[in-house]
Input
Amino acid sequence: MAIARPVRALGLAALMMWIFFLYTILKPTPGLVGPDKYKTFERDPQLDPLEEPEGKLWRATEDYAPDAKNPARINATLLALVRNEELEGMLQSMGDLERTWNSKFNYPWTFFNDVPFSEEFKKRTRAATKAECRYEVIPKEHWEVPSWINDDLYKESVKILKENDIQYADMLSYHQMCRWNSGLFYKHPAMENMQFYWRVEPKVHFFCDVDYDVFRYMQDRNKTYGFTVTIYDAPKSIPTLWPETEKFIAQHPEYLHPNNAQLWLTDKTRRPEHWEQANGYSTCHFWTNFEIADMSFWRSKVYEDYFNHLDRAGGFFYERWGDAPVHSIALGLFEDKSKIHWFRDIGYQHIPFFNCPNSPKCHGCTKGKFYDGEPFLQKEDCRPNWFKYAHMD
Ligand SMILES: Nc1nc2c(ncn2[C@@H]2O[C@H](COP(=O)(O)OP(=O)(O)O)[C@@H](O)[C@H]2O)c(=O)[nH]1
Ligand SMILES: [Mg+2]
Output
């Protein structure tokens, strides 16, 4: 018996709907396969075997010798703000970075201090590298508390910060350091001709052999900023940083980059209490004690205007705004997020956090380990959000 054409068509449509229905319920759940598993952080990507980045990499050759006639090095420096008293810690960091990377490429070291470096500091740091060392004093106008900061208000504010257990709140130099690292270091005359820097603190560790020129990597891939670790900030150190940022955006909506990472900055789901206390900012930030970056971004009009806005608002002193949330917010809003790179291959530790990739090139840290054991510290890790709202490259 022949089936009428409309009935056949209906039957076919019903079959297709069934197939679609079955596909919908049986298809793999997002977040459980492929790179999505990293977004939910079922699995730390550092547990997976690591390979070098793809594409052309610049290897150590004689053109990277300290005295090479036509050096392959680009305009870049290792940069450390450090006190004379921190010499031993600085030597520890230098030893690690020289062994794993810089002894192959010989980029210069630039040391900054708010007072002159001692002869001992100079002698012993010079002995720790074949590369050139420069010792720079920060000009007073870059370090001193700006004239518009009211001393009484500062003292009152410190009391509140201390009641809220904000570390270093009563240490004026800490506030000065955060401000300098946010918006002044790249204005030092010694940095005038420099484009890239790698920030190094005393007492940090580098674990993995890195066999390519990371500055050229940044330049060749058109990257602005490289990080290793992201964590949440203490929200009570920055209650008005996000509201001030919102005011700034309202004045300059044109500064927002079309491919920004605002959703990363404003995520409420993972740590809602932080978002509440920071008035709309997740507090997730690049941990800036490590940063490899192109200063062109800090020198841009957008960042200059943003930094000046924040500086005038006074939160570097009346609160304890750190250079980490300030840099991170600026990058997240005003830069193309594809220009921000996770250096997953640079094994790093600043107590208590690690970046320890699973690679035979890494020694002295536990492979795939990010934090120092305690569940509380694990909670501070916000890399999953970066992977979710941005990317893993
Ligand atoms: N020269 C100098 N360096 C400082 C001063 N305060 C902080 N630093 C440096 O700034 C960086 C951050 O300070 P640190 O005490 O490590 O802060 P933490 O990492 O937030 O605990 C380190 O490289 C310090 O050596 C200061 O008053 N003078
Ligand atoms: Mg430190």
About this structure: The chain has one domain: 61-389.
